[in-house]
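Consider the tokenized backbone below.
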């Protein structure tokens, strides 16, 4: 069986979407969604990155992320940036981590008919890199220790208490 997802409001797999409201700390900052993090990294070290981080919605962060030319190495690093964000999101939130792990070894596909890089594209020939990242993160989470997850929760608690 294959698992398809696209929007954040789909049950139970909407949490696989980068627009799902599952924030996390990464690089010393709080990110409302993985979309915020991903889009901001196109402009890391510039004021535009902070504007994106503070965007009210993931859709707004995406729009801002496409508003200006991005860093010159973006094509080379964007897969790793997305992987880092998705891993931290699922490491941080036990509820969605359980959903991802419950998929076993099933194929996960982002059914975005307009995206041939992150999704499967209209004709199914897309790279589905977001689905591949989710499957890689799933494997990693199977091997992460309970102590690592507890340490991450403590870090998140400190952030929310400040």
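A designed sequence for it:
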């Amino acid at each position: 069986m294959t698992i398809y997802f696209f929007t954040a409001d789909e049950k139970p797999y909407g949490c696989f979407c980068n627009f799902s409201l599952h924030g996390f700390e990464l690089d010393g900052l709080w990110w409302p969604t993985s979309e915020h993090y991903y889009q901001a990294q196109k402009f890391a070290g510039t004021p535009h990155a902070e504007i994106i981080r503070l965007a009210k919605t993931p859709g707004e962060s995406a729009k801002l992320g496409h508003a200006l030319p991005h860093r010159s190495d973006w094509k080379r690093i964007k897969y790793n940036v997305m992987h880092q964000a998705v891993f931290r999101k699922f490491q941080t939130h036990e509820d969605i981590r359980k959903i991802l792990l419950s998929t076993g070894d099933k194929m996960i596909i982002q059914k975005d008919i307009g995206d041939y890089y992150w999704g499967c594209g209209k004709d199914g020939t897309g790279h589905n890199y977001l689905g591949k990242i989710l499957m890689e993160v799933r494997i990693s989470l199977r091997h992460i220790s309970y102590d690592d997850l507890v340490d991450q929760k403590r870090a998140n608690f400190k952030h929310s208490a400040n």
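The chain has seven helices and four strands.
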